[in-house]
Amino acid sequence: MILVTGAGGFVGRHLVAALLAQGVAVRGLDLPGVPAPPPHPLLQWQSADLCAPGIPAAAVAGAEAVVHLAVLVASSDERRNRQVNTEAAGALIDAAEAAGCRRFVLMSAAAAKFRHANAYGRSKRAAEALLHGRGIPHAILRTPLILGRGGEEFDRFVKFVGMLPGVVLVFGNGRAVKRPVHIDDVVAGLIRMLEMAILDGEILELACREPVSLNQFIDEVALRLKGRRKRLHIPLAFSLVLAWLAEALLRERSPVTPDILLGLNEDVDFDVAPTLALLGIEPKPLSQALDQAMSRSTC
After folding, report:
1. Beta strands in the chain (DSSP E)
2. Can you tell me the distance from the alpha carbon of 29 to that of 4, in angstroms, rounded to the nearest whole number?
3. pLDDT at residue number 118
4. Would the CA dihedral through 246, 164, 148, 181 be positive or negative?
5. Which residue, 194, 203, 199, 189, is CA-closest to 283?
6. What 3-state DSSP class applies to 133?
7. What is the CATH number of the domain that holds 93?
8. 46, 31, 130: which is closest to 82 by C-alpha?
9. Domain residue limits at 121
10. How many independent structural domains does the chain possess?
């Protein structure tokens, strides 16, 4: 049985469905209030907060392996990022090691290696460090923006590109290198990481093969929204001031935060060839990935 945390989230829903389709028993865990998938004879569902005492040990009981997807994103709160993304991950790693789980797969992010790490990136990098040298066989998967319907970050990006008629606001110069990846390829990578017993301690970076600038990516999204849009660039320093004011006034309702803007202006510095060769998968080209993601997009 495989424990999947964050099982009700974007990646979690797709991974759980794929594992069940392969006949793998799954225990899905997510916060109370997160809708459970449809009932399935191979699925156990647990509603719980991993930050609560005793929950990690209960969650891993009887599990052969763990895929840890649960995460806090789009928050500048340093303490909350550390609590959810680092401390809860550490408690789950401890519990999985004590329970004798055969494998632990940690979902990380491109933000973990940004030059100017934000609160989210720092918390994910710290979670990665907690796995180093542990007795449980483990591997870490870093991903950039994930393309697909229901992906909060992607849907928000598409909505932003299409928000104004004929124009897109670009915070910064738009030259940062981006390497998105389709949700199907992320799920395929996670399943291969569960299957490959030789993996232990590797950090794998998965994305499409071809890099694009943020400007190019905006143009590609805009084309699929039925028309080109003129890019209107706003200097990053001024953009950060506006984002700080918006976050201070709107808090969780702010559509943009300084952390989000800093992330948009960081290069996704991935060398994907070793990961693709090791896992034996070939990700969708960006054009195909965008076509599939946006043909079903709700935006």
Report:
1. 2-5, 26-30, 43-47, 65-68, 103-109, 138-143, 146-147, 167-171, 177-178, 181-182, 202-205, 212-213, 230-234
2. 6
3. 83
4. negative
5. 189
6. coil
7. 3.40.50.720
8. 130
9. 2-147+179-209+269-284
10. 1
Q: Which two tokens stand for residue 216?
A: 């190019």
Euclidean distance between CA atoms 153 and 61, whole angstroms: 32
Residue 298 has pLDDT above 50, yes or no: no
- Residue 204 is assigned to a structural domain of this protein: yes
**Are 13 and 35 within 8 A, CB to CB?**
no
Q: pLDDT tens digits, residue range 3-51?
A: 999 999 999 999 999 999 999 999 999 999 999 889 999 999 999 999 9
* Domain presence at residue 75: yes
In a domain, 6, yes or no: yes
Q: Find tokens 């017993």 and name the residue.
A: 197
Residues 48, 40, 18: CA angle, nearest 5 degrees: 85
Q: Is pLDDT above 80 for 253?
A: no
24 neighbors 42 (Cβ within 8 angstroms): yes
Spatial distance between the Cα atoms of 195 and 280, rounded to a whole number of angstroms: 12
Both tokens of residue 211? Answer: 């890099």
Integer Cα distance of 129 and 191 in angstroms: 22
pLDDT tens sequence across 43-55: 999 999 999 999 9
pLDDT of residue 296: 52
Helix axes 183-195, 10-21, angle to 10 degrees: 60
Predicted confidence band of residue 120 (pLDDT cuts 50, 70, 90): confident
Distance CA 82, CA 105 (A): 19
List, for residues 126-173, the tens digit of each pLDDT value: 999 999 888 899 999 999 999 998 998 899 899 989 988 899 999 999
